[in-house]
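Dear support,

I submitted the protein below through the web form. The confirmation email said the job was done, but the results page showed an empty box. After a refresh the structure appeared. I'm attaching both so you can tell me whether what I see now is the final result or a partial one.
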Amino acid sequence: MYINPDIKTFYWYSWFFTNLMIYLMYGGCMPLMYPLGIMFFILNFYVEKLLFCRFYRKTFEFDESLPFYSVKLMKWAIFIHMLMNCFMFTDKRLMVPKDYTTEMHYRPLLEAPDRFFARRYDDLHSQSVVLVFLGVVILYLFYRTCIQPCCNLCKKCGERKRALNFQDKKIESSGKDKDAIAELIAEDFSDDIVKELNIRFLRTLYIRCHKEYELFRTMVNAISYDQEKLSDADANIFKKRLKQRVRHVEDTIDVHLNLIGGLETYMDRTYMYKLAVLEENEEKIPMKDKKS
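What the results page shows now:
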């Protein structure tokens, strides 16, 4: 997790978009490209997930902004897919009319472009393909230039109105109203997110925290990291933080175990054993503490 090579995000995304463009560009005249593309993306998803979770080094170089931006770029792949289909489905050698001959396809010498395109789109089939393509493009432009700005404007106006209404409200701070508001706030507030996890996810978190700490401690003790990117002082600080995270999860396990009256009984047991006990008695924990 800390000594393996970094993930090359530029390679994965460029490879993804290259294959996406190829499958969508040539899928219109070769329908076999669609099932091949489905097989490729399914296998690619599981391979990348396995490598990202089990092989590549843990990285902090990118966040969710890159995937969100790549999703916005996919609309251009759909546009090119429709454009290529427009050319392919109007090719009379591919969609042959009844009265078509091969001599009609080739462009005569010095033929004007308007006459060439007039012969290409002179039947109802070719004209319908072009009209569908232009209709989709016009609808998309209308949505982006008219509908989407209006929706965003209405959304912002609604947020401003709710903010003004909330600002004008006077919250009572005495009597029963104060107790009711405090109870509502308490139901939606937590000072420790780890306590809200169920035992199954708490067990997964403990295994992950402990494994990350052991891997990083081994790397620090062996000095097998790049000291130009990570100094010794920063490595020791990060090692202490990982250890504190493990202790925080262990303290949460002890708190849950104390709520069901088993802390003294299982004090000398390992934390994996304590988690097994908590998993068998998980329904008793909320009865003792609603915030757990």
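Response: this is the final, complete result; the empty box was a page-load delay. The mean pLDDT is 79.
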